[in-house]
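Quick note —
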Amino acid sequence: MNLSPRLKTIAQSIKNCNIVADIGSDHAYLPIYLIKTGKANKAIATDINEGPAEISKKRIKKYGLDGLIQVRVGNGLSVINEDEADIIVIAGMGGILIKDILEAGITIAKNANQIILQPMRDSRILIKWLIDNSFEIIGGEVIKEDNKFYEIIWTRFKEEHTCQNNVVKNEVYYYKNTDTLHEYIDKKINEYKKIIDQIKATNEGNNQMRLEECIKELNGYREAKQWHSLNAEQ
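Predicted structure written out below.
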């Protein structure tokens, strides 16, 4: 089974897992791959709707893995038992929705050895929530797939983990220093430069706050790019 680059990156980071829970499993591609490659002993594939869950069941049966992968229908972590999953994966959802899922199932999230998140947007809001709630950011990476960028975050609860400054200036400080990351930062810089030019061209006074926000974001990505460049040279 061939996985997309973002799912393959997630899969490659998983080793010696007893039970992995894939929340919003997208037809169980990841759990099937993890079982077939021996990266996990068992898996739980969840979905909030019956339709996708039934497709997952058929695909799992096709691979003869129905004894090793359970399909459960329900909202977020509500269908996972306490201390059941070593690793939790939540991929392909908005960062705010992922935050809400973790918040609603906070006890289950805290008991996992590792949580792998792939937010489609609002990663900064998600990272700030993780830090505020004593989750350690183990690592992060930007992946390019079909000319789109995807952010992946590895985290775990660490009770003694504290952060002196809970202000997350920019999410990219937490990401692995790669050529793809620099390409992603350049894209964000160009996007904000265009927005700033458009706001200035309208010359409307009520856009001043938006202009200041965009300038702040632009400078933030420029500083992050410089920081990553300096760290790459060390």
